[in-house]
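It is worth pausing here to work through a concrete case rather than discussing structure prediction in the abstract. The textbook approach is simple: state the sequence, then state the predicted structure, then interpret. We follow exactly that order.
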Amino acid sequence: MSNTPQPAPVVSEHIELKARNVSFEWEKTPLHWVPGDPFTGHTINVLHLLLPAGERWFVQVYKQVLPYIRDERLREDVIGFIGQEATHSAAHDDVLPHLKTLGLDPTPYTAQVDWLFEKLLGDRTLPPGRAREWWLMERVATIAAIEHYTAFLGDWILNADALDRRGADATMLDLLRWHGAEEVEHRSVAFDLFMHVDGGYRRRARTWATAFTALVFLWQRGARFFMANDPTLLDGKATFRDFARAGRQGTLPTPTAMLRSIPRYLSRTYHPSQEGSTEQAVAYLASSPGANGGR
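Step two, the predicted structure:
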């Protein structure tokens, strides 16, 4: 357990975490769910490729770290986090068969993602003791770094009014905003858990660098995969110029905003409660059709 002093939340926004029963109907969602902008839709679609395997991996790691938790409220938060992440994984997984029916088979890419999380980042045959604990703490720290970006994206999608103005598919937006709201709702759990069981700054910085590099690589690779395999595009390509354009239009996060998030996470005074608004997240969750019986 860490003896490092934990950065204090800016505002106490603790809330009981629970997995919600969600339901999304995909039959009417088109392949280009942002009208006239396949690049933006496919860039966001990468979430459906990464998150099912990634969040199953989160759950696997967190079940292993539960015995290390000595704070009862944090234990309850982690259990709530596990429930929410398992639901996220299943909800994004359900989108993939619909994409396949529209002529875009994601299997070649998802197989690579599965290998990354199951083999490269999965459990290893290590003797009990320090080696096994070291590998567990590395993964706990990596999840904290990834959750910094899922909270960043969650806050962004809750405020991405440009997608509404562009006529983006309502069901896809609801899935993204339900997920984003829960990421904001539980944004402090992964970091608080890391600080509780380890908290070493060197590990935090090192695993951030690994996580950030991997996310950038996988995301651009996924966007290129979707654009190249879209059956409706003759020469589909994904370029940084397209990404920057979408950022200026507000349909994707700007590169500047993403870069500015880096020093925030690496600051020794960082705490995730500094990011996003629990009040906004809870308000959306109360109104989300998919999280409230499809109303």
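Step three, interpretation. The chain is about 65% helix and 0% strand. The chain has a mean pLDDT of 92.
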